Amino acid sequence: MSERTQASVLVVEDEPDLQQLLLESLEADGFAVAQSFDGADARDRIRGFAYDALVVDLRLPDANGMDILDEALTRYPEIKAVVITGVGGVAEAVTAVRRGAIDVMIKPFQLAQLSRTLRAAVEQRTLRQENAALRAKLHDRFRFENIIGRSPAMKDVFSTLELVSPMNSTVLIVGETGTGKELIARTIHHNSPRSEQPFVAFNAAAIPEGLAETELFGHVKGAFTGAVAARSGRFELAHRGTLFIDEVASMSLALQSKLLRALQERQLQRVGESKNVSFDVRIIAATNVDLRKMVKEGTFREDLYYRLNVIPVRLPPLRQRADDLPLLSQHFVQKACESNRVPSRVLGQEVMRVLMAHDWPGNIRQLENAMEFAVAMSAHTTEITPAMLPEDIRHPDRTGVLQPVLIPDEGLNFTAVVSQLERDLILGCLEKTGGNKRQAARLLQLSRTTLIDKLQRLTPPAQTSAA
Questions:
Q1: pLDDT score, position 41
Q2: Fewer CB within 10 Å, N side or C side of the chain?
């Protein structure tokens, strides 16, 4: 037990020799030990200090150990107490445990066993407290008021979330790419009766078609080549919690049919098995396309659409949330400063006018990336200026940084043209940054390693010296 986590224990024992043995044993095992030889001193110590644990003899010169136990537990319900006694039997042990002791040990007992019992109990309590603190922190993070937005469009969203979250109804979140659909899904979950249970995310667009079914429903051993062990799917992992299905429109019609069946019957079949497995899951789906249009085109099942679209939540694009831009921008600047351990930066009015004029096709995600880019480009200055913003934000009228390539009648060498283009971009950024590869990589939104690899491949050795 380390110094940082050293637990305190009060030992109440009237026999000096045993008291000394307990002191030495517990201190050797990392506990901070206080001693009392009678009930009166024990009561004074308990009233003056919140010990992590208590070891109390059942019979003391001036008191009953049960009374000391009761007083300690009444004052500190989380204290871990062990009763020791040289007399008595099952009845006394049962009484002590019913009053709140974690164990009763009959003299002579093993000192190591006492240490193990106390340590396990204290560490279990500490772990439970840490878990509770983490859950509280997570819940605080996803409180409605922590979602940034004061615009009328977001106020409508908040009103819907407050009504929807306590329910078990299926929710369909609709919004453009980058509008924060997963954040909204997590907020619904963490403000629901299922908040103590798992939140499991499944991105239908990120999973290859051949693996999507096993990811969702799981598989048994030997179900297919490479299935060397059984595996639970996302539905089972989310049991009693929430399953978030993102990019639901990316599912094939075959997978849509299996999803529909599972939602209708509240049962699934693992791949390679015919047995039905029941589940208790709340479904939150999300899409960035018009599912009604897909239904008309025959690419999305109409019955699944109605199964998912029980409570629709529509997230407005950032261009419709002009009132929220100043708050969001400064929030992302502060976030970037904290994650990169740099002093705080501020956004001046000039840069704010540029941000307000942009239409933000990438929505919240694009804004966050732009603010992180600006923080990186701000070097040692405290105020972010328009010059520090990405090129596409500063000059939205420029649809691209490159001139159109003219295709000659005889054609061209595609590989050579692309290689020359990469070379020109890299060398141009290196010139702009004075040869600083790290800043050049940021300008190109590449890792420094990738930039160096490309530079070595595209330029002669003499031009690729380290910088």
A1: 93
A2: C
